Amino acid sequence: MQVATGDGYPEPMWIPRRAERTLRQVAEGYPVVALSGPRQSGKTTLSRVVFPDKPYVSLEDPDEREFATDDPRGFLARFPDGAVIDEVQRCPAILSYLQTRVDQDRRCGLFVLTGSSQMPLMTGIAQSLAGRVALVPLLPFTLGELAAVGRRPPSLDDLLFRGLYPPLHDRDLEAHRWYGNYVATYLERDVRQMVNVRDLAAFQRFLRMCAGRTGQLLNLSALAGDCGITHTTARTWLSVLEASFVVHLLPPHHRNFDKRLVKAPKLYVLDTGLAAWLLGIQAAQQLVLHPLRGALMESWVVGEALKARYNRGLSANAFFWRDRAGHEVDILLDRGDRLVPVEVKAGQTVTGEAVAALDRWRALAGDGAGTGWLVYGGQGAQRRGGCEVVPWTALGDPDFALFAE
After folding, report:
1. Quick one: fold of 18-137?
2. pTM of whole model > 0.85?
3. What 3-state class would DSSP assign to 252?
């Protein structure tokens, strides 16, 4: 599936992305399309595949960045029919000049921007390109994208250990080594560009503590205390990780049927391969009895729910529900007219307790409750009462009903 380039390096195979259709659609209605997401999620490849006729320029290139900074009008004048401008957050001032350019030209799909950090990109867009840009977040692969080309991981543990970043699936790389380089060359550098991290060891400890708390309610004071940093520093670092699509804070959903609900969000490290590396897991086999195996699977399902929405150009609709008595639903999908509860269990056996939790919530929710879903780590689908029980592999089905809306 790979070919050798003229330099002797294997060229990554192209794995089609579900966001491709969305990109083509929004480019017909907006002059600017902004593709954001974590580094190495496939933004550059996707933008060049969807818009092959547009010139490509990366602002990671020091010469191009200097040109764009010193002479933004001259820089943009090189592209009379638009261009793909990669890593645009490296020169946010150019967005103001883009506004003038697209207002004069008035063609749709003129410029395609990519950015690896949502914070500076969104700030610049809000100030300069409001109403002129379509935002499409791109996270790493979905299971369905891999399954469509016959590259679905052979087991749940392989999936959780390897994660879903494209370089680990479109070429032959060793996961543990790749994540080590990824953290050193991307995460730490990007964070230093956005905030002044004076103690890199403390930040590394913070990353690992976040991984150890994936799937748990966020207690920022405890997290800060365990890392030996201030509450303010912890909040700043967490905001940067969230803006960089490394972590996601899943908000609680409040319903009138029970006022005694928790108000803190749940913390998730979105890619399980990154989380596994931060936890010191060095092989998929080590996950079999790992105490965080269930939390990692839950993190993966939350990520799949987010990707299903983002790939269609929609905002996130995932929440969770938990009361102070400890009753909880892992994920609630807000469909507008109903709430769909989802439970995640990493075990290979479906217990009555897991289905009972869904039934309990559906009884409390009344008419506003949709069909309950249980995603588990085994094989085979079944229906229990008002709940659909599906194996983890079902999330790779292109017609999987849970994330279809």
Report:
1. Rossmann fold (3.40.50)
2. yes
3. strand
